[in-house]
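User: what does the whole thing look like in 3D?
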Amino acid sequence: MIKAGIVGATGYTGSELLRLLVLHPEIEIHAVSSRSDAGRLVSEIFPNLRGYVDINFCEPSPEQLSGCDVIFFATPHGVAQAMMSDILSTGARVVDLSADFRIKDQTVWESWYQQPHNSPELIADAVYGLPEVHRDEICDAKILACPGCYPTAIQLGLIPLLEKGLISTQGLIADAKSGVSGAGRKASVPSLMAECADSFKAYGISGHRHRPEIEQGLTRAAGADVSLTFVPHLVPMIRGIEATLYAPLTGAGKAMGLEAIQAMFEQRYQNEPFVDVMPAGSLPETRSVKGSNICRLAIHQQTGSDMLIISSVIDNLVKGASGQAIQNMNLMFGFEETLGLNHVPLSP
Amino acid sequence: MIKAGIVGATGYTGSELLRLLVLHPEIEIHAVSSRSDAGRLVSEIFPNLRGYVDINFCEPSPEQLSGCDVIFFATPHGVAQAMMSDILSTGARVVDLSADFRIKDQTVWESWYQQPHNSPELIADAVYGLPEVHRDEICDAKILACPGCYPTAIQLGLIPLLEKGLISTQGLIADAKSGVSGAGRKASVPSLMAECADSFKAYGISGHRHRPEIEQGLTRAAGADVSLTFVPHLVPMIRGIEATLYAPLTGAGKAMGLEAIQAMFEQRYQNEPFVDVMPAGSLPETRSVKGSNICRLAIHQQTGSDMLIISSVIDNLVKGASGQAIQNMNLMFGFEETLGLNHVPLSP
Amino acid sequence: MIKAGIVGATGYTGSELLRLLVLHPEIEIHAVSSRSDAGRLVSEIFPNLRGYVDINFCEPSPEQLSGCDVIFFATPHGVAQAMMSDILSTGARVVDLSADFRIKDQTVWESWYQQPHNSPELIADAVYGLPEVHRDEICDAKILACPGCYPTAIQLGLIPLLEKGLISTQGLIADAKSGVSGAGRKASVPSLMAECADSFKAYGISGHRHRPEIEQGLTRAAGADVSLTFVPHLVPMIRGIEATLYAPLTGAGKAMGLEAIQAMFEQRYQNEPFVDVMPAGSLPETRSVKGSNICRLAIHQQTGSDMLIISSVIDNLVKGASGQAIQNMNLMFGFEETLGLNHVPLSP
Amino acid sequence: MIKAGIVGATGYTGSELLRLLVLHPEIEIHAVSSRSDAGRLVSEIFPNLRGYVDINFCEPSPEQLSGCDVIFFATPHGVAQAMMSDILSTGARVVDLSADFRIKDQTVWESWYQQPHNSPELIADAVYGLPEVHRDEICDAKILACPGCYPTAIQLGLIPLLEKGLISTQGLIADAKSGVSGAGRKASVPSLMAECADSFKAYGISGHRHRPEIEQGLTRAAGADVSLTFVPHLVPMIRGIEATLYAPLTGAGKAMGLEAIQAMFEQRYQNEPFVDVMPAGSLPETRSVKGSNICRLAIHQQTGSDMLIISSVIDNLVKGASGQAIQNMNLMFGFEETLGLNHVPLSP
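Assistant: Here's the predicted 3D structure for the full assembly of 1392 residues, as structure tokens:
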């Protein structure tokens, strides 16, 4: 049994951490902070947690958060950077769900997030937490940078191909779609139901912050610079991400053929508890992973075309955020990797 | 004032024709057929038409449909082919909203629709009804093949570029998303609200019937064979299509630059009443065209990339079907092209 | 042709006024104000209006709004009260969509809206604008108080019964349900799509501001004090109100019987262009009035029960707000009552 | 560890039983039948169950279902009646989620379901499974008639009041609203997403089959005939029921007052693991119970009114069907009542 704290628990990744942690057999919720709602009962803000959490939000200060074995940051970017040294000095290990420590190149981070990095000296120590790729490093991490939602769905779909040199490193396209919870739980006109229900749109077409994070991961897997066109879209649903990935096959990929590529995917992920390579011809639906930490993938090719198409679905709040954070925590603390994450997706 | 008939009026394109035609100043609804609901009052099936239409569905026979100046087919593929000769012999001109006469190559049609074509001798006479490209031919058409919903959104976004040789004819990608009304008004488990709401998925990833229709139109515009990867998706909304188009710029396109390409688009469509090239940086939403015959387009490019990105939105039931059918009819009968189509999109 | 101004045009009732007025043949949009967006192009905020409105938002000052024949207030309560004298002195007549002048009893208004009334001397002059009940007074109004959305749906369902003494004046229940556009276009966490989609709840159970307005209208129709239990609910849809009304039949009502009550309703509304008494047994759907100024009603009774049940549906933004405002304006200026309001409901 | 079988597992209550049972520590899924999909892999129909269930649907015959300790019927009405004797003779105990054995009066059942009852001799043996009211009888049941979804939400809200004589037994009103999964997983036009999304309607206004079931339960609790007006509505969401209950207070109820009634409710349900009486002033949302077996209740009264208002929410597929079925099964087999039912509601 270890003690956990959450900074920024009034957002969706924070409340999702609570949903998952309250039934985790090795976790005691020790402190839950919220600048805006400090003093209020957690279950007053999140009635779905009535009967499961009986504590009040505290101020997000190192004092209030001391005594924790692990601290989760479920905050906008910038917050974890500012508090990181103080938190580490309490002895806690950190799982950061924000973007603060995901990008290894400080100048790239600063140019996309338009502010100076607050703890540049800690960037090198942070481990990027995609367990299917970096499991060994994760176990020893002090600062775990939990991947973004789009980057998770996209990297899991492309990395096996890049590792084997089956697709080009140039001309890759990720057309990704997210439910509205991805925009967070903050008052804003464009996220009103009357503004985004029964409609669909692309956003960030000219450039989105997740692109450098994805390219960094793909480049590492390929061992060569990868360039990606990434366009996110807003879907009138609450949870879920689907990414349709378009990858020109290399000579090696063409020679291999779709059937063998399917088999390669199945083998690559055969021991991964949270990646499901679906049978040939499958069409993954986001609802098939709703509420769970699972990523489902399907691989396709159109007649007469050398473009490989991968469809990848996750729950943006679970495998794309809080579930993956707990998967990482399990590895960091030596628990079974799936502990507390065995949820059958809710469907319909 | 001319007399109009609709074959297959219990589907969504049929009922949408009714919604638009009942207020069209030059149209009298003469006959509305439905095999399944013959004898019933139209407004009983479609309560939104109460007070606007006071006739009963008839059987879809040439006798019942005789006396019309124009007949709209709002039927599944195969029906218009089978009835076409008989309908033409009543003297009516035909606007066919189905796929029966869209594809010029009979063997291509037969291989995608998995059945022999029933009126191959009429294929050559049919005019493909995308007014922004084929206006002159449309005016004289006896058989007007109204474009599919995806083909409309995609062709309007790519044709200006292909006409000018600014993008490659190979490696084009159309990642398109449609509301559920695109699946039609027929009982089916996958289209139940409990099955498709709050979820998102790709479908037809390995190949979809609209691909050859789109390639045919793009090839004609380019004057060279165009190959396209086309993946449709299902969005949990009722109406609307968004297509995100990825097109590698040619040398000429790169030399031209984004700003000049934007200007070229604005010029190409400046006299088109139903195509709106939005200002640079815009993000078209499907709701901005809901209920209207408008297509809105935006053109983007990401830093350091030679991939042009176009986002194109239409209402699949209006510009993607029934509105475009009326636009074509207006041209065929010498009415003002916009007559009966002046609807402000319904938003929110 | 008269000149119209709108105060508070960045909300949903304001933008809906614009959607309807831009095609109204007797209206020229003269001034459109918005405190928050003054100076910006209207169509930049509302892309659905691109091509229809080419003016900028102005400041909501009497100077900017002068020269108008009619001013619509589409503002939160309190604003029309504060500006009313100044606006009237410009010579304009006013259609107020807010709650400021709906309630005749100043103390009742002040107790429900928790603030002193700013123009108590003008309350008596204001005419309550439910045309189906107060048509004559409306024609001469200087200040027209446009009814609330719930009050419209509920009064149209109950007033014919109260006028005839067929239902009790006590123990009436209105269980009403509204789409989320009823909450307005302002940033707020509870109205986020992630908070209210795929969920349903009652609100204001202990008391809602529309209750005294409804009771005032019912009391006037009955000629006796009417008391109502009114509970509103939030439906995960954009537009629409459904009110299920429960009314104990009086002796006279029981004696009359359901069939005759149906006939009485049909007669009461037979000349009303915007009230549709549906055939016996009908189940009104909100989508059957979407985008239109129509109210549809159905009357039911359960076996062995003396409770009359009425289901009433409107589009909250049209007959519940902006459409009704224009219907009133048409009456005030001697136009055909239906002018500019002939929209077939958008379905599906 | 006991063996369970499910008859009719391709519907929503069947698939929901599977979702819950696969993680139940005392259950082994032994046989899962489906007439329509016999022979197919369960996870092919329900991809959310991939990795959890690895069996094929069998034919719904007593032979295929033999060897089970408990059989769940998740079938339309009529099926359980026809198979009941054969199933009982295999030695299994039965939990019937259909309406076949809920109503004690055979003629009432036959008049509402329009067919002769197939096993009238077994009606008396069946135990109505609302654990919060009938826990003792349930433990010994051979045939457990699991309550309907509306009856569960409504009875839990009214029974405490009727037990104490605080509300009238006449003039009760239940205005209930259900998500679309309540209509089942069968192909039908009215349940298409394009037909029911972004819309709201009442149905069954003139009479619904759940009314006699509810009145039977309320009458038993009151010890006197109770009559209820019950109107169900269709909400454009997937899961969830909200019932707003209107109950005239008796003299005793008025004397008691709202605060004491709130306390009475809290006491009545204080040991119930699945009923949550929310604090005074609360507004229960259906999403606060999504995916869980919890019923949440709030009690209200409007100023100057003697009408008590209760809002009750459940997940129609869990506490309204499959979760309650498992709660009953736990009682029948001597397991902890909450076993396998400890799910935090999924929110957002």
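In plain terms: The mean pLDDT of chain A is 97. The two ends of chain A are 34 Å apart (CA to CA).
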